Fold this sequence. Notes:
two-stranded antiparallel ribbon, LysM peptidoglycan-binding domain-containing protein, endopeptidase fold (from Nostoc punctiforme), LysM, LysM_dom_sf, single chain, Papain-like_cys_pep_sf, signal, six-stranded antiparallel sheet
Amino acid sequence: MRFNKALAVLAVAISAALWSAPAFAESTPTTSGDKTSTDSKQESDKKDKEPKNDKKDVIVTVAEGDSLSSIAEANGTTWTRLFDANESIANPDAINPGDKIRVPAADEQLADRTSAALAAQQTARAQAAPAPAARRSTYTTRQYTSKPVSSSSYYVGNGMWCTDYVHSRRPDVAVYGNAGYNWIGAAQRAGKSTGTAPQAGAVAVTNGHVAYVESVNADGSYTVSEMGWNYKAGNYNKRTVRPGTFGQFIY
């Protein structure tokens, strides 16, 4: 009888101890692999905050009849930037259907390949071209008395500089600042066609000078008229020049 009473007291004590024990299961974090769910969430948040680079190169496939100038105009850039950005292009005047052209971003810094290419073309043409059959280079000068067409033109006394003169012959071609190859890029941005072959009525461009093409001869030479001859405002000149004398033209 006493033994049974002792067992009953012991059972009551054990039951009371179990009811008062703390629960630890609630604070145990769940795991997934080697990371806790908290770590996974932190990593996901970190990835969401990392900057994303969605910028992709624009690649144009050359179609029949395309030129660097036409591709540049369609993509809001210049042919010189296309040439500088694509080392696979050896000659800016020679691209073929199926070629891939990368269009550089507007803020991309590019090495200047154009200047060397134009200089090489000019040298090659000068070496390959035969001498004109009749080299008619006249250097007669006279004072040009008409005032400049543009109020922003380079005007000295009552004479014109070369820039004013070509503008008077081609009013659709603006005075793009000082004469030089910078006129080519400015003309392209204005929607003008440019190239390396002389044409009657074109503006001939070389380093530091522009002229007006009067005619092209069968032997490849061409006749230009110009102002500012020998860097003297108002000095008019007309001459026949060898192929390659002027590197580029605005049509």
